[in-house]
Each structure stands twice: as structure tokens, then as C-alpha cells.
Model the fold of this input.
Amino acid sequence: MPNVSNIVKTIQDIMRKDAGTYGDAQRLEQLGWMFFLKIFDDREKETELLRDNYKSPLPRHLRWSAWASDDEGITGDALLDFVNNTLLPKLKSLTGGADKIAGLIRMTFEDANNYMKNGTLMRQVINKINGIDFNASDDRHMFGDIYEKLLKDLQSAGNAGEFYTPRAVTQFIVEQVNPRLGETVLDPACGTGGFLTCTIEHLRKQAKTETDEHTIQECFTGIEKKHLPHVLCMTNLLLHGIDVPSNVRHDNTLARPLRDWSPKERVDVIVTNPPFGGMEEDGIESNYPAEFRTRETADLFLVLLMKILKPGGRAGLVLPDGTLFGEGVKTRIKEALLADCNLHTIVRLPNGVFNPYTGIRTNLLFFTKGQPTTEVWYYEHPYPPGAKSYNKGKPIRIEEFEAEREWWGKPNKAGAYTKRKENEQAWCVSIDQIKAGNYNLDLKNPHNPDTGPGDVDHLLPEYEKLLAQIAETRAALKQELHHALTATAGTNE
Done:
């Protein structure tokens, strides 16, 4: 039996020969839907053995086993014709009435494309995919690791890097927020499903019965705006044993007015890395109350999180420095956060965690809804000994968070972390100090005073901060000028 990692490497080599797939993002999108159909087909074969009355949501001729599993099957132009003119169009318009799986497949394929232009090369790829048996646990686990690597490779595929959060960061956030069996979990910007699959693994360690497993299948929700990560997320969840990942929607979370989220939709836990540095399209901000209106994606997500957490609900998320130091709307959002939630911990990550996608400094915020913040604990995460940055070859590792884990402790009944101690990396700031600083949360480690002019890794984000502040001031002035001109025009009529 060929090694799964060799199979995937060979598939990538074959796809590079095809004139239609001219980038990593396209190759991965193509592989995404092909893997999805193969994994789904393997799962169906297993289900057919276990359930006599099983009926596939797919017409027979569209199932992977019907058109792809025979190595001597259709190839060349006939294969391209079938994929382009039968398979993809039929999957995009799949009907199944109340069948959740049919709807899921339709949603997964609504924006799917076939980029391959050479049907012979496509047959070679299909034959290689047939070498993986997703019902064999060894193959599935090996492929899971490779899939993680493929998703990571997206970091260097242009803008697609925004879809991937380093595994160590997702794992640390999930561990510290600690979802429990029976709680509802949401990632409103789920990308390729890193936080969801991490949560599933975390909950499975608590599961003891078949009922527990059923609870895990149903307890989480994800929403993803872009097609490519949505397909990859679906495939990722199938790989993690989620039978019908229909609770992951292809949608823009922020396009829904904030007031439309009902109390019934509130959740116990939110773990997420909302897109940052991006601007939402015109009009999205009008879905939010006037005092919180901004087109900065990360800020809108923070407002949304405060709304849709249940009282007592917990959140862990990644946010850029810009949200911590920003003024104007950002100040009002932080004021609301500290009044409505207990922002108990901010872990300050060093530069380069998201290299090569972005050099922006990031932070991990942890808060509980329902009690106001009285103090914020900061922990400055250091580079490992000998390292000056992270890169693709040397990413951040979960072992590096061991010091934070030991320091973390448990909250008392009032939600305060009374056992925590200040040290070279950790310090505590009272709510009075934060209010006195006009809600600036971008606070430096008092145990590590800056010396010298600073290195470029530090100065560049400082410069980016300045640019962001200038842009925000310019936007505010423009808005005031527009209001003044509108008012003048009104009095002249």
C-alpha cells in the first residue's frame, strides 16, 4: 500500500503539469471538492453496510464510486465533459427536499470550479486519490495530518493565508476556554475549520457514551463567508468523523443585522480568529448600532461576540494590536466590552506568528459575559530561546504555551484569578487605570522596559499603528465635513 503522504505529493506534482491550475490556492480548491466526494463516498459505503435502508442523497451516476473509482474509467475529453457539464452543474442544483445532506452538498458545491484543462492528468489525479481509503483509520489519520499541512501551505498562497490559524494558537485558545460536553460552541468566521476540529477533539476526550458522541455531532456551529475555506472546512469535518456537517454555513456573519440575533441563538462558547486588516463592503456597518459603526471587520466581530454569548458564556479570540490601541469607535467598543464582560486575560503574541501572511502583531483575548471587568491580566508570550521570529519552517508550537498554562490558574466564584502572580512575562492592570488611559489596552510589559531605538520588527507595527490612526482621523473628518455640507445644503433650500 503506497504511503499517503507520497500519494498527496504525487497528486500535487501531477496538478502542477496542468495549465489550468496555476497557483496553490486553485490546486487546493480543486483537491478540496475531489477529496470531499471521495471521503463522502467512503463514508457512504460504510453506512450502507451498517444500515440496510440507507439511501444516498446523490443520484447513482454522480457518486464517486460510479464515475471515478475504476482506474480504467472515463478519461481525457470525456472526463472533462462529464465533470464540467454533468457532475458540477448537477451537484450545484441538487435537490433533496428535507434531506440535510443534499442541502449540504449543494451548498458545498455552489461556487466549486474545475480548473483542470487536461482530462488525462485529471484521471491520473483521480487514480491517486483512489489509493487512499478514508474508512481505514491509519489512512484517515495520516491524511488528517497531511491536510493540516496543505491548509498551512495556503499561508503562502496570496490572500488565502487569512484562512489558516496556527494549530498551536487554536489548541491553546480551546484548552483555556475549555468547552464542556453539552455546551454550544460557535466560530462565526470558521475558515477551514481549525477551531471547530480542535473543539471536537477536546470534547471527544470527555465523551464516554454513544449519546456523548451524538452531542458532539450537533453542538457546534460555524459560518464562513468565502467558498474555498468553506469547502475545505466541510472536508476537514468529514475527516474528523462529523457525519453531516450541516451546521457549518456558507454565509457572511456580519451581513445580518445585530438585532436579528435572537436569545435562542446565543451560545455558551465562542472560539474564533476573525479576519483582521480587512474592510467590509459598504452598508454592512449599518447592521450595527450607530455608536459601533465601522467597516473594520475584526471590530464588528467583537461587537457580535458580545451580543451572541449567553450570560456566563466564554470567548477566546485572536485580535490585532489595532483594536487594542485604536480610538473613536474602537474606544466605544472596548468600553462596552469591559462593562458587559470580564476581560480577564490578554496574551500578547510576538511578531511573526502569522508569517508570511501578515506581520501585524496579534493578541489572544479571553473574556466571560455577564460581569464587568475589574482587572485585566496580561501575559507577554516570549519567543523560544534562540529565536528572533517565527517563519514557515519554524512556526509557533503548543509546547511554548506551557508557562502560560501553569500560570493560568482557576477563577473564583466571582470570576477573578486571585492565585495569579506577576512575573517577568505577566502583569495586572486595574479597570481604573484602563479608564484613565481612555480604554487603551495596548499596554507594555512594565518588567521589560524598552531600550534603544528599537528594531525594525517592533518599529514597523508602530508605524502601521500610526498610519491606522491617521486613516481613522481622516475618515472621521471626512464624515464631519460631509454632515456639515449636508446640513448647509439643507438650510439653503
Remarks:
- The mean pLDDT is 87.
- The first strand starts at residue 185 and ends at 187.
- The two ends are 82 Å apart (CA to CA).
